[in-house]
Design a protein that fits this description.
- By secondary structure, the protein is mostly helical.
- Helices cover 70% and strands 0% of the residues.
- α1 runs antiparallel to α2.
- The longest helix is centred in the middle third of the chain and has 28 residues.
């Protein structure tokens, strides 16, 4: 998807190739050292084309991250909160999770000093995903799995993000599907008063 008001002459395949190159460069040099010149050289594109399509580095990076995300949260509806959360974790294999965990830690650091990047992330990733996640939780409330007045409801995303990010800091290990499923069952669901089986 392109920035509003911009027209694409780029095929979906070429767009995917560009996004993958951007993510590779981010993993190699980080956000601050990433330049549109480097993206143009890596992708054999003109810098003018990149600016015309994406407007700038922040927009291009966020679109690349968004494109790489495995499926939409609104596609997850298994009939139980536990199964929904386990399905959420299962969208990405352990190798992809480790790569993306490191990438997101780097981008989180860059967001502290870059307003454009922070705003693009909020608008294009965080807010839409939060809305989808709230719908997932609302279904669990409607099914009677969680009390509507459960105080932990406001902190589910914080708990999940914490489990994902902090494992690398505390244990020097990337998050894995097995770790996150165990974390969901031992921490997130009990905090919500939701069934753990």
């Amino acid at each position: 998807m392109l920035a509003p008001g911009r027209r694409s002459r780029i095929t979906p395949e070429r767009e995917a190739e560009l996004y993958e190159a951007v993510l590779d460069l981010l993993r190699e040099v980080g956000y601050d050292a990433l330049t549109m010149d480097a993206v143009a050289a890596r992708t054999r594109s003109s810098k003018a084309t990149l600016y015309r399509q994406w407007g700038g580095k922040a927009e291009l990076v966020v679109r690349a991250v968004r494109h790489s995300k495995p499926g939409q949260l609104d596609q997850i509806d298994t009939g139980s909160l536990r199964s929904d959360l386990h399905a959420l974790v299962s969208r990405e294999d352990d190798c992809g999770m480790a790569q993306n965990s490191a990438l997101m830690r780097g981008l989180a650091m860059a967001m502290h000093s870059n307003d454009d990047l922070r705003q693009a992330f909020r608008e294009q990733l965080i807010e839409p995903e939060m809305a989808e996640f709230q719908r997932l939780l609302r279904r669990a409330v409607d099914r009677g799995e969680i009390r509507e007045d459960c105080p932990a409801l406001d902190f589910v995303v914080h708990m999940l993000a914490g489990g994902f990010v902090v494992r690398a800091l505390i244990e020097d290990q990337p998050p894995t599907q097995a770790f996150l499923r165990s974390y969901i069952d031992a921490v997130v669901l009990p905090a919500l008063g939701a069934p753990t089986v």
